[in-house]
Amino acid sequence: MKAYLIEKFLPSILLQSLILLVSCGPRKYAASDVSFQSDSLYFTKYAKLFKIGFVDSHRAILVMNPWDSTQIWGGFIVLNRKEKYSLPRGYQKIYQPVRTIATTSSTLFSHLQGFNGLKHLSGVTDTAYIINPQVKLRIRKGLIEEIGVGNQIFDEKLIACDPDVVFFSLFPGQDFSKYEKIGILALPL
C-alpha cells in the first residue's frame, strides 16, 4: 500500500518540491491565467509563489515570478501519459507518473529520499562530490549517469539517461529550450 501511495503521489510531491525551490527569472512567456480555477480544497497557507488549481479539469500549478509576485513565471498541467490535450499558451505538461528524474543539484536528494523517490533518479552532476550513500550506490551500479560537471551539462549523457524531468541549478546564460524541444521538462531549482 505504501509503494502504491508513493507512486500515486510522486508527481504531486515533485511538483510541490519544484515550486518551493523555484528561484529564477521570468520565462519568455508566462502562462495565461484566464482559464485557471483555484482549488478550494488544496491551498497553501504560507507559500505565496505558486497557486494550485485546475485548467479544463486538469490539475494545474501557476508559479509566480519571485521578483514580482504579481506576474506569472510559468504554468504546469499534470496529465496522464496516454492523455491527449492541447495546452494553453505558456503551460508545460508534466506527465504522471514521473518515471525518471535528473538534477544538477544534490539539494534535491533529501526531498527525493523523504518519500523513497531516489529510485527514480537517473542523472546527476559532479558525482565525485556526492556523499548520499544511496545515490553513491546507484552510481556504482550504473543506475545513475553523470550528466555534467559544475555548470557544464553533457547534453548527450543527459539525453541518454532519459529523464522525464531535469531540475537545473541556474547559471548565467543557460537555455533550457533545447531540452524541452526533445521532450525533457527542464525546471529550475
Task: Write up what this structure looks like.
- The protein is α/β, with parallel strands linked by helices and 189 residues long.
- The two termini are 31 Å apart.
- It contains five helices and eleven strands, in the order αββββββαβαββαβαβ.
- Mean pLDDT is 80; it is low at 18-29.
- Helix content is 25%, strand content 31%.
- The longest helix is centred in the N-terminal third of the chain and has 20 residues, at 2-21.
- A six-stranded mixed β-sheet has the order 9-8-7-6-10-11.
- The radius of gyration is 16 Å and the shape is globular.
- It has helices at residues 2-21, 107-114, 133-140, 155-160, 177-181, and strands at residues 36-38, 50-55, 58-65, 68-80, 91-96, 101-103, 121-125, 145-149, 152-153, 165-168, 185-188.
In terms of DSSP E residues, the strand content is: 25-35%
The biggest sheet, with number of strands, parallel, antiparallel or mixed sense and barrel status, is: 6 strands, mixed
Distance between the termini: 31 Å
State the shape: globular
Strand order of the largest sheet: 9-8-7-6-10-11
Q: What ranges have pLDDT less than 50 throughout 5 or more consecutive residues? A: 18-29
Number of strands: 11
Layout of secondary structure:
Elements: H1 2-21, E1 36-38, E2 50-55, E3 58-65, E4 68-80, E5 91-96, E6 101-103, H2 107-114, E7 121-125, H3 133-140, E8 145-149, E9 152-153, H4 155-160, E10 165-168, H5 177-181, E11 185-188
Parallel strand pairs: 4-5, 6-7, 6-10, 7-8, 10-11
Antiparallel strand pairs: 1-2, 2-3, 3-4, 8-9
